[in-house]
Amino acid sequence: MASPGSGFWSFGSEDGSGDPENPGTARAWCQVAQKFTGGIGNKLCALLYGDAEKPAESGGSEPPRATSRKAACACNQKPCSCPKADINYAFLHATDLLPACDGERPTLAFLQDVMDILLQYVVKSFDRSTKVIDFHYPNELLQEYNWELADQPQNLEEILMHCQTTLKYAIKTGHPRYFNQLSTGLDMVGLAADWLTSTANTNMFTYEIAPVFVLLEYVTLKKMREIIGWPGGSGDGIFSPGGAISNMYAMLIARFKMFPEVKEKGMAAVPRLIAFTSEHSHFSLKKGAAALGIGTDSVILIKCDERGKMIPSDLERRILEAKQKGFVPFLVSATAGTTVYGAFDPLLAVADICKKYKIWMHVDAAWGGGLLMSRKHKWKLSGVERANSVTWNPHKMMGVPLQCSALLVREEGLMQSCNQMHASYLFQQDKHYDLSYDTGDKALQCGRHVDVFKLWLMWRAKGTTGFEAHIDKCLELAEYLYNTIKNREGYEMVFDGKPQHTNVCFWYVPPSLRVLEDNEERMSRLSKVAPVIKARMMEYGTTMVSYQPLGDKVNFFRMVISNPAATHQDIDFLIEEIERLGQDL
Question: What is 166-197 written as a DSSP string?
């Protein structure tokens, strides 16, 4: 159960307290929960009451697990045909579920019990008294369970147990004290949308098989382009499997724009192409260059200032160097929200240089794009409207469930020309509807997952103002962390000044190192501190935060906040936990 004061179970109770420990409040919750079918209500009540008082409706004891239901008859037929018999999963297999004849009843029971498992996990994800992770080493998990695939099917009782086991060892990425990645949190509307998407189980390549989803992608991408600042939301775009692929799309389209013949004739038909990005940019730029045959040596890393921002003068210098060697600069990728420092490159200055030398300007705003939703913080992306393409990952700062990444392109039709292959078995030209809604031919993929519905439904539920409040809160929490530790004994900031994003980078210096001079020995010992504290965090399961070295800087903590469930108390807990786990180092 959520800790007192966390607000998770808060609502208007009879005494106005909203206290989850108040019997009247808990009973009211249980009355609501009893409307769920398949035993879900009883188990939610058990979670509310724990081992203390339970409502009369629950019978005063925890109901039997879904996987241990016993048959009410003794016929042992498979499946049992007795109308009053309960479901016995030990006698059932996947072949007894729909589309099997008479499969409706076991299917409903099975899915309700799966839902029971999922809902309990969801509730526990927000409970601060539960572990963020139940960590086991790989060899321990491999030895403890048989994960191998077999020729013969297992029964549904075992299948449900696998669901429970998998979630038992899963990382609770929605936990208020999980800060390890850029993508954190668990949005309830987004989760519901993901369940619906999986239920629909369709592909995004044509309107005829995904009519609503295709229209929602059109509407949502247009809105995102409007927010970027392109007139009337004009342009093009697509949802892709993550920011790395979105960045590769940008590189692919930029190359085609400059040398369209490369589509048929390949790299042998074009001169040596050069891309430019900052030394703090995401590794996906080099991966994309490798995949497209451009080569990692053709990606030039531009120097950054002490805050991690690209230095425009160095960019122009390196462009001129490349041109003098006879190479062709074709793309500059600026970053809006770098992975480690959370830095925003000076987009206006970069845009001026790209215009001067006629180079495609891409903005990797996978991490920072969400700030465009905030009137308070969108200035950090000033100049993004001058980009030719933008990567924006709503599954990061906006809290949309993974995965949800968009590549937005300013020039309409260019993506289609670049990737189109005219597969006549999918994209027939004599269909009876507007063929512009058959979007699959502009994608690299044929099979494409429906990623837009999560974002669209959350947007409808929250509104732009809801996303704005979410983002403003996370940035305020980052500033609170920075202000708390910047002058606190035992902490050293990696760079000076308030962070621009939610990235807060710092060293924790144990008491034994505070008296040492700033020399090589101290740096060597300091480099081992963050990995040990992180390992202890995971073994205790209390919290998770990332660390890494960067350039000449030894391992430091990189705190990021994108989970709206986090509070000032969770930030305080993190600080105290780092100190508790690192005092003896």
Answer: HHHTS--TTSTTEESSSS----HHHHHHHHHH
- For the beta sheet containing 544-550, the strands, ordered from the edge strand earlier in sequence to the opposite edge, are 178-179, 544-550, 553-559, 504-508, 491-493
Give the residues across from 507 on adjacent strands.
492
DSSP state of 328: E
Q: Of 73, 71, 74, whose CA–CA distance to 89 is shortest?
A: 71
- Give strand pairing partners of 547: 557
Tell me whether the omega of the peptide bond preceding residue 324 falls within 30 degrees of 0, making it cis: no
CB 122 within 8 Å of CB 43 = no
- Rounded to the nearest 10°, the torsion over CA 170, 173, 178, 182 is 130
Determine the pLDDT at residue 82. 47
- Asked if 88 contacts 69 with a C-beta cutoff of 8 angstroms, the reply is yes
Which among 87, 452, 555 has a CA at the least distance from the CA of 237?
Answer: 452
The radius of gyration of the chain's CA atoms, rounded to the nearest angstrom, is: 27
Give residue 336's pLDDT: 98
Per-residue pLDDT at 12: 37
In the block, tokens 């805050």 appear at 307
Report the helix count and the strand count for the chain, using DSSP H and E: 17, 12
Q: What is the distance between the alpha carbons of residues 229 and 387, in angstroms, rounded to a whole number?
A: 10
Return phi, psi of residue 409, to 5°: -125, 135
Contact 189, 457 (CB under 8 A): yes
Of 570, 572, 569, 544, give the one whose Cα is nearest residue 558.
Answer: 544
Peptide linkage before 63 cis (omega within 30 of 0): no
Give pLDDT, residue 86: 78
The SS3 call for residue 204 is coil
Name the pTM for this structure: 0.86
What pLDDT does 430 receive? Answer: 83
Tokens for 330?
């074709």
Class of domain 201-451: alpha beta
Closest CA to 363 of 351, 376, 375, 377: 351
What span, in angstroms and rounded, lies between the C-alpha atoms of 439 and 446?
10
Write out the two tokens for 476: 């305020």
CA atoms of 22 and 359, how far apart (whole Å): 64
Measured in residues, the chain has a length of: 585
pLDDT at 424 (0 to 100): 83
Q: Provide DSSP, 386-398.
A: G-SEEEE-TTSTT
Report residues of the chain scoring pLDDT below 70: 1-85
pLDDT at 225: 98
The residue type at 545: V
Written as six digits, the tokens of 478 are 């980052």
Measure the CA–CA gap between 198 and 220, rounded to whole angstroms. 20
553 phi and psi angles, rounded to 5 deg: -95, 125
Residue 152's CB is within 10 A of a number of other CB atoms, namely 5
The domain spans of the chain are 201-451
Angle at the Cα of 519 from the Cα atoms of 513 and 525, rounded to 5 degrees: 45
Tokens 């189980």: give the residue: 201
